[in-house]
Design goal:
Layout (H helix, E strand, L loop, with lengths): L4 E6 L5 E2 L2 E2 L4 H7 L1 E3 L6 H9 L5 E6 L6 E14 L23 E16 H8 L14 H9 L2 H4 L5 E4 L1 H13 L4 H4 L52 H10 L24
Parallel strand pairs: 1-5
Antiparallel strand pairs: 1-8, 2-3, 4-7, 5-6, 6-7
Helix pairs in contact: 3-4
Amino acid sequence: MSPKYWLMKAEPDSRIVKEKDVKFSVDDFDSVKTTPWEGVRNAEARNLMKEMKVGDKVLFYHSNCKTPEAHCLSQVSQEAYPDYTAWDPSHPYYDAKTDKDNPKWYMVDVTFVARTAHFVSLALLRRIAGAATDDTPEDVGYIHSDGVKAIKQMALVTRGRLSVQRVEEKTWNVVQLLAENGGWEESDTAPKARGKGGAKKTNAGTKKKAAKEPDEEGEDADAEEVEGIGGEDDRGGLASRKTSQTAGRKRKTRDADGESAAVTAGLRRSTRARK
């Protein structure tokens, strides 16, 4: 059976929750090599992980940071099993309503494969997605019009906030091409600064959830999805330190299913051991 393709988000910057640092960067991942993807408290993200099979390909993505971007390639090394951190009161993402005999939350193990030669940022993907199908940006002309079409359909740019996302094979191939070949100027993909008092532009439009949810580019990455702290996790954006306060308020807001409206976004914050 052919592998499926996914994108999973994690926070590269330190953030303390219950006296534990929940950051998990590409350096941490490279160090431990294999890690359980614990802490996801969003039903949709959980269900996607339950579909994963050993050998599926995963794009590891930094979210809730100044420059949200894909940093490495990895793969699923163990299929979904109960996320035991949900019933650990000392864990940052403890869920008092979970039941050991009928687990609500699941996780998979993911293994590091290789860093990308070029980091593929959300800003770059949005720029490509915003181009006319017959007008491929010159600096990435090697992806051609079919590549532009594939990026336009990528969940990261169409809905962003979820921390675990499907990636179509044709889209995966385009992202891999970008990661291998580069060609763009980093200044072209850096988050744009906003003047004081200036209105914040966001692709989220009316998609606001709970408190504020900044979009990835120049917004709290956390606001992204709101599932972990990244909310674009889902969403990936500028992680102003206001994010932790906003995320804190979000995590206190439970939805009808008892899940944090913000924590349910599926953001990858990890307390996995970093040796």
